[in-house]
Design a protein that fits this description.
Elements (H helix, E strand, L loop, with lengths): L1 E5 L3 H12 L3 E5 L3 H8 L10 H10 L3 E4 L2 H5 L4 E4 L14 H13 L4 E5 L7 H12 L4 E5 L9 H6 L4 E4 L3 H11 L9 E4 L1 H32 L3 H9 L20 H14 L5 H13 L2 H9 L8 E5 L14 H11 L3 E5 L4 H8 L4 E2 L3 H5 L4 E4 L11 H7 L4 E4 L6 H6 L3 E3 L6
Parallel strand pairs: 1-2, 1-4, 2-3, 4-5, 5-6, 7-8, 9-10, 9-12, 10-11, 12-13, 13-14
Bound molecules: nicotinamide-adenine-dinucleotide.
Amino acid sequence: MKICVIGTGYVGLVAGAGFADMGNDVTCCDIDGEKIAVLKQGQVPIYEPGLDKLIAHNLQEGRLAFTTDISAAVAGAVVVVLAVGTPPAPDGSADLRYIFQGAETAARALSGWAVLVTKSTVPVGTGDKVEAIVRQHARHKFAVAANPEFLKEGDAVNDFMKPDRVIVGTSDPRALHTLQALYTPFTRSSDRILVMDRRSAELTKYAANAMLATRISFMNELAGLCDAVGADIELVRKGLGSDARIGTKFLYAGAGFGGSCFPKDLRAVISTAKEAGTHLQILAAVEAVNERQKHLLAERLLEHFGGGLQGRKIAVWGLAFKPGTDDVREAPALVLIEDLLAAGARVAATDPVAIPAARKILGERVEFQASNYQCAEGADALALVTEWRDYRRPNFERLYGLMRTPLVVDGRNVWEPSDLRAAGFTYYGIGRGG
Ligand code: NAD
């Protein structure tokens, strides 16, 4: 099957390489010439485990190509995937300009029937708007389907190759037949293709992210209660998660959620509801709790040091919004660092892969260190923000010797408070009992 993927970011690149790996002929295109040039040289512009091998293999087999010539890539394709960004507009709604641009370019370039598949996360009703744009510019018959993507950064290749479910939103028989043929190889062990109307498919993606974000904010709010009453959120989490009706996932209290999806998708679905004349009270609270949570680590440090951080060095471990990715979009570490700098601290930061991305945002205001121990050298406090594996069992004796003040703020509850206290550290976690 000839496929064109428009937008070669985290989703488009993984999807393009994944489709190619199933034997399809895929061209990934982007308006970002630099990105395409890097990919053409056989390099991968983002960090995603396993993606480099997948791309290299399919490039070698001649099934995967990269171009900035979107029209040429669309011509002859039976599936045109829109995987462009849908960033938040200032009012919180999803900015759909890249979707509409991509749809228009694709429509003009169609050389025969094709299904335009919206893989980007888009508000309910976007499929209707895309269809109207394509109808205006296309000279051939076409269909527009919703096919939201559920991969998670850090494990995106696995998620894409072995999806929990594939949602196909269309009522067009030819589009449905084409997409079933495309996805069946990904769901061979059991049929996990769910077919529904386009609007329900569009909303399902927001519903999934909103539910996951709700669980996190729920636990963060409960962690605040744990601190107030002397309970331990980690014990509560275990007791709660062992209930099969609840399950263990997404129940971790921490320094707040970030990334390119949860915060923006929450705002977008709240905005959709407002436009539709309804109000999503729970999700408004989820967002408010998260905004407060992202400032919690800095507040702990300010409280500890009596209100100011002048002359203090604070070490920050972890910049990516979660382990396994170099993505720092809306990362809690960025909020913490801005708070620390505003309070007069000198900040040193480290991360296994996200330093280049963070440097683009923070510039020279932060001292970046490749080694986590060098980062902590002479520090008055160490804040752990991203639970990379490298940070889970550090040599605390070594850290104790390196730091000026043995104080840790564990923003992901990965360290055992009693061990740290026994080793001479002052320990603050999230909801570990005050
Ligand atoms: P991204 O910013 O990494 O990539 C988007 C790409 O689209 C960029 O390379 C950009 O240059 C390109 N682009 C923009 N306009 C274009 C145009 N007119 N023609 C061609 N290329 C164009 O974004 P992403 O993280 O891959 O997310 C893409 C979409 O998928 C978003 O709607 C997002 O919400 C959704 N999504 C993301 C994830 C994730 O984990 N990142 C998961 C599921 C869904």
